[in-house]
Design goal:
The protein is mainly alpha-helical. The chain is built from nine helices and three strands, in the order βββααααααααα. Strand 1 and strand 2 form a beta hairpin. It is globular, with a radius of gyration of 21 Å.
Length: about 300
Amino acid sequence: MEYCPPSFDLIDPVLFSIGPDGFDFGSQERVWFALRWYALAYIAGLMLGWRYMVSLSRRPGLWAPVGTKSPKAPFTEPQVDDLLIWATLGVIGGGRLGFVLFYMPDMIWERPLDIVLGITDGGMSFHGGLIGVSLALWWFARGQKLDLMRIGDAAAVVTPIGLFFGRLANFINGELWGRPTDVPWAMRFAHDPECALRHPSQLYEAALEGVALFAIINIATWKFRSLEKPGLNAGLFLLFYGLFRTSLETVREPDVYMPEALRGYITMGMLLSIPMILAGAWLIHRALKTGTPAKS
């Protein structure tokens, strides 16, 4: 692939590496180990999300109506610690398998080993990760005899943290760029074969999927006590992520894997977000209709 001179200062996707020539901040031609910003984004998202979820387990008053005698959180701190392992497996396994199934299914029969070995070269899907985490939460809740809706509500509070760091890492990697544009803040990306000025859609996604979504769900949690209504936070997450992602797909470069007749109008991200919007609206309706649990 030809190199396109970027219109902004590059950040090396490799934070540091260790190779035959020793330790270096940045990439080398020959390395034994390299820590990439993308991997660091996953680590930061999981660690910060874990600690935030622990803090929610320490605030039983958030989960029951004001005035409830002896309120109790739906899960304990040790259970959150165990959940971290399951969530990590769900994010990585689901994200990778989702990318293969949704975007590159030919890899299954043409290069099956790359499904696992090629993960270091990139290729993760948010929607696949969502499915993977949802299955992990279901399995964990079933084994621990916990309320799945309550676990999902807590996960919805913390997930935008990981989305924010992940989109920043996409920007650093110079991938998932936007459509050509002439807006004043348009950028060129180094690996763009067209070398065009484009929307920095990764930063738009960091702002909406990360910052805005985090604000919406946390305002609902702390100001409007949404955790009192099981399923409400999960519904807010699914609805608003789906709406944000669908709107951002209009400025993001269309998927090359879509049929030619649909490319430019409908994207895979839009198609995968529609079920999220519908499920989110249903969960919100269900939570509000059920109402606040009675005091005990």
